[in-house]
Structure formats: structure tokens, C-alpha cells
Amino acid sequence: MQHIRRELIAEQSRLRRTLDSMLRTAQQNGWVPEGATMTVRNGRMVIPLVAEHKRKIRGFVQDESDSGKTVFLEPADALESNNEIRELESRERREIVRILMELTSKVRPYTEELKRAYTFLGIVDFIRAKAKLALEMDANAPHFVQKPLVDWHGARHPLLLMSYQKQGRNVVPLHVKLDHEERILLVSGPNAGGKSVMLKTIGLIQYMFQCGLLVPVDDFSTIGLFRNLFMDIGDEQSLENDLSTYSSHLTNMKHFLLHSDKKTLFLIDEFGTGTEPSLGGAIAESILNEINRSGAYGVINTHYSNLKTFADRTDGLVNGAMRFDAEHLEPLYQLETGKPGSSFAFEIGRKIGLPKPVLDAARQKLDRHQVNFEKLSKELEIEKKVFQDRNAQNLQRQNELDKLTEQYQTLKNYLDTEKKRLLNEAKAQAKELLREANAKIENTIREIREQGAEKLATKEIRQQLTDFSSKQLKEEVIVPPKAAPVNEVEVVGGVITTGSLVRVKGQNTVGEVLELKGKDAVVAIGDLRTTLKVNRLEKVSRKEFKAATGEEKPRAKLTGVDLNEKAVNFSFNLDIRGRRGEEAMVEVDNFMDDAIMLGYPELRIVHGKGDGILRQLIRNHLRTYSQVGRMTDEHPDRGGAGVTIVEMK
């Protein structure tokens, strides 16, 4: 085989050199088309010539161009070489066939082993392909349960994920849960808000997992098993089968109704659309009721308000919404369960530039109930955004507080350590001082004895000892300041009961016991009410109480205010539209009292636009509060001049 191929290569080189020499001669004489090169026709190497010069070179015409202006000539000098090449190519093919036949004969006894190896390699290659796909998608193996269940965290659409990875973008993760109590999720929200992508994400991930693939969800997710996966996504209209868009949807719904059971997962996009809205909504509600009775699990996208209301009052169904930034009119692509979403049709229409008269006329034509529903959904979205921003601010403040607390604790530990060190140094210095003093006294006594107790010498030695003591005290001793005198309150003793006048032990603070709770006592101290341990209190006489407080008798018992209850029931949004001036003032005063007591930094008062009388009246009244910092109009998308934002100091 090797020598045949060597001969073939050598013969092709000789033929190429021969034809190349003849082609250069023909080019010099202008017999070939411009830019022509050697080529192969009918398995033989030829040179192209202009048809009118084909007789200038002896040879055989193997082919011609479609226009007939160029012929492909095999020169006579190349005939033998071409024949030799064709013969060598035939020999090469025969040799290949012979080798393959001999190889096949040797391998034939091992056919079964090769089949098993081939199958094994196929399985290994399939597993490796699944692993490479899982690595590319950052996929995991969630906890598997052999029952219908969807409890996913951080789910991402596989195709969207891989596409975004190439662009350096991130996919917003999806959190979805379908269990026995909430089997069917009804998702609403604006167009282009991500509802269809969410639906396809659920279907694709579930199908991938049931095909044995790892899926792009967080590893602490839980995934179940479904026997049937039904989907109605997109438009299946067909001219061949005489099906319109709505007819195709109804055909799918018929299949769902006939075959849905407790092990079915169905996904329906744009449920009920394609026909007159009121009729489509009614039929969709009936179909949804029947599917719910079957016990099936599923996710449905819709814009119909009657379906949202039906899901809210029906067991097994739960509303959901694709979140939307109502202020900037941009989708957030986040699924939120528990409440329906608004379509934000008017807001999106205003954003893209629809004329205001057209939008106003549409609002007037809309059903009042629908207007209120959309308004409530929008207000809830706005309030949620406000609270989220405040929660973020509170979290930041909490982090700052934690840092300050840590710094304080570090400083306290340092001061405690430094205090111990200083005390130890002071004790050591005191010991040294005492030792020196003792040594000085002993020396003084010895000198007095040695001097024979002479009067003058003894006086000098004693003066030296006095000077030494004064010097040491001046350098080493720091006299603490005297505490201010405290007027003690006389204690009469006795058992403390409700109504007793008491004093806090170690203090001159006196008050009245309002209530006993086991070992604790609720005590009124002035205008304050506090809870103290009974063993920290001492009973005093009414005379002593008067002397300490200057009051003839204790003030009336405080009823107290339940701040927790007020905080739960308080809303930073006050709506006084339609109120008369006096009624509005009373509500505003009560509203401001609660807000000041609870410490709200920002309030929202909805008074409407109208002639602006109520607005001006409210703002003039709010200026009388020293706690009010400034007042501004709400953002135009959230009420404008019809709403006053009150910022507290």
C-alpha cells in the first residue's frame, strides 16, 4: 500500500510539472482565459484553453464550459501520465478493499465483544455529554421525591442562561412552589414582564430532569415526578385542519380535561384569549374549575380579572404576579406568589406615547370594578417598593449599628484590660512605697538609738521622716472627689401590694405600684410606666412620697399605649378624599399623633386634586406641627399634586 501511494504521488508531481510548463507557454501566447489554472475533469488533469485556440496544442478535449467559450484539454504529452495515475488509483482502491476484508475477517470472531464495547462507549459518551452540559449551565441534582411536587429555588431557563453567559449577563432566578395545598398557580402581570419565559422555564426544567439531566436550580430545591406533562404555549392555528387560534386552544383544553389527573403538570399561556373577552373569561373560569377538581398541578398565565378573583377564593389555587417597577415602568422578571398583578396597560400606553385623550377615554369606558382593582394593585406595588427601600435603609443602619457595637465592645475590652494593668501597677507601686516607708522608719529608729536620743538629732531625724512621707503622698496618692450628699428617703417596710408607694433600692426614685405580675411589678414613676423586680423595691410612706415628689398624692393610674398594636395597624398612607374640612382635620391630627409616636420618617396623605382647597387647608394645618420638616407633591406617576408627601424632622 505504501509503495503504491509513493508511486502515485511521484507520478502526479511529474504530470503537474509537465502541465505547468505547457500552461505557461499557452499563457504567453494568449491561448488561455485570464486567471486560468490547471484543473481536473473526468478524473484526468487538464488545462483550460480558449475554444478558438484548442487546436494550437495536440491533445484530447475532456470537457467544456457551459458557455462553450472554454475547453478543458488533456495534452498528448500528459496522456501516459494520466493513464498511469488512473491505474495507480485503481490499484490503491483494490488494496484498500483487500486490507479491509482481511481486517474484517480477523475482527469477525469478536463481533459480540465489539458490540458490547460500542454500547458501553455510547453510554459513557452520553454521560460525559450530560456532565459537560451540566457544567456549562452550572446545573445541580436537587432533592428528588417520588410524588408530584415543585419547590424550586434559583431556577434559570437553560437556553437563556447559556445565551446570557456568552454576553456576560445574568439571568434573574425564578422561585416557584406547587404543593398539595396550592397546586395551581395563576400568574398575571404586564406584557413583556417575563410570564411566558417563566412558563417555559418550568416546563423545560421538569422535562430535562425526567429525561435524566441535571437542571439549573439551587441544590437545596426539591423536585417531584409527573406522569403527564401538558403544554399550551403559542399559536397552533392550522389552515389544513380548519383551526383558528381560539379553536386550537379549546382543542388543547379538551385534551387537558379528558386526561388530567393528580400526576399531571399542565402549563397554559394566555389562558382564555383569542375570543370576545367576557365570553373567553367565563369559559376559562369553568375550564379552570374542572381542571382544579381533577387534582392536577399547573401554572397559568392570564390577564382576566375574573380568574384572579376565582383563584383568590378557591382552594388549591393561588395568585401570582411578575413584579413590575411602577415608578420607572420596567419589568423586574421576578415571580411573587400570594397576590395578583396588574397589567399596567395605561401606564405602558403613556410610556410609549399614546395621546392622553385616548387613555382618558379608555379609563371612562372601563368597568369601575376593574379600575379599582387595577388601582389597588398599583398602589400595593408602590407601597411594597417603598417598604423594600426602607428595609434596605434599615438593614444598612443595622449594619452600621453592628459595626459601632463591635467597636464599642473592642474599646470596652481594651479599657477593662488597661484598668486591670493600671491597678496592678498601682498595687506594685504601693507595695514598693510601703517597703521604702518601713525601711525608712527602721533606719530612723536605729539612728535615734545610735544618737543616744539626743533632743536636737532626734528632732532632725523626725523632720526627715515627715518630709519623706509628705513627698511620697504628694507623688503617689490621688484623693477621689467626694460624692454629693444624697437625701435619703425613709423606708417604712411591709409587703408590697397594688397601690403601694415604693422606692427603688439604692435610689431616691419613688412611684406607685400599678400591677403585680409574679415577681415583677408595674410601677408608675411620674408620667412613665416601667416594669421592675419586686425585690428591687422598698415600701415608703405617703409623707415621704410627698416630700420626694412634691405631690399630695400619686397621679392617676396610667392606662398605657400598646405600641406594638399601633405599629401593626398603622399605615403611612392616609386617604381623606371626599371629607369635609373639619372631618379631614380630625383624621389628620389622629394620623399625625400616631406617626409622631411611632417615629415614621415619611407620610403620604391622599387628598385629591380638585380645586386645591382641601390640599391647601391640610398643608396650612401641617405647618403648625414642629415635627414636620417639609411637604412635597408625590411623583406624577403616583398621584402628583393630589398627594402630599410629609417628611418628618
Keywords:
649 residues; alpha/beta; MutS, DNA mismatch repair protein, Chain A, domain 3; Rossmann fold; 5 domains; 5-stranded antiparallel β-sheet; 19% strand; extended
Number of helices: 16
Residue share in helix:
40-55%
Tally of domains: 5
| Number of strand segments | 23
Structural topology:
Layout: H1 2-29, E1 39-41, E2 44-50, E3 59-64, E4 70-75, H2 79-107, H3 111-137, E5 143-144, E6 150-155, H4 158-167, E7 174-178, E8 182-188, H5 195-210, E9 222-223, E10 228-232, H6 245-259, E11 264-268, H7 277-293, E12 297-301, H8 305-313, E13 316-325, E14 330-337, H9 345-351, H10 356-365, H11 368-450, H12 455-476, E15 501-504, E16 510-517, E17 520-525, E18 528-533, E19 537-539, H13 542-549, H14 563-569, E20 573-575, H15 581-598, E21 602-606, H16 613-622, E22 628-633, E23 643-648
Parallel strand pairs: 5-9, 8-12, 8-13, 10-11, 11-12, 20-21
Antiparallel strand pairs: 1-2, 2-4, 3-4, 6-7, 6-9, 13-14, 15-16, 15-19, 16-17, 17-18, 21-23, 22-23
Helix pairs in contact: 1-2, 7-8, 11-12, 15-16
Task: Describe, in plain words, how this protein is organized in 3D.
- This protein is of the alpha/beta class and 649 residues long.
- The protein has helices at residues 2-29, 79-107, 111-137, 158-167, 195-210, 245-259, 277-293, 305-313, 345-351, 356-365, 368-450, 455-476, 542-549, 563-569, 581-598, 613-622, and strands at residues 39-41, 44-50, 59-64, 70-75, 143-144, 150-155, 174-178, 182-188, 222-223, 228-232, 264-268, 297-301, 316-325, 330-337, 501-504, 510-517, 520-525, 528-533, 537-539, 573-575, 602-606, 628-633, 643-648.
- The protein folds into five domains: 2-103, MutS, DNA mismatch repair protein, Chain A, domain 3 (Orthogonal Bundle); 143-354, Rossmann fold; 387-473; 488-560, SH3 type barrels (Roll), CATH 2.30.30; 563-648, Ribosomal Protein S8, Chain: A, domain 1, CATH 3.30.1370.
- The protein contains 16 helices and 23 strands.
- The strands form five sheets. The protein has a six-stranded mixed β-sheet with strand order 10-11-12-8-13-14, sandwiched between helices. A five-stranded antiparallel β-sheet has the order 18-17-16-15-19, with helices on one face.
- Strand 10, helix 6 and strand 11 (264-268) form a beta-alpha-beta unit.
- Residues 237-242 and 476-487 have low confidence and may be disordered.
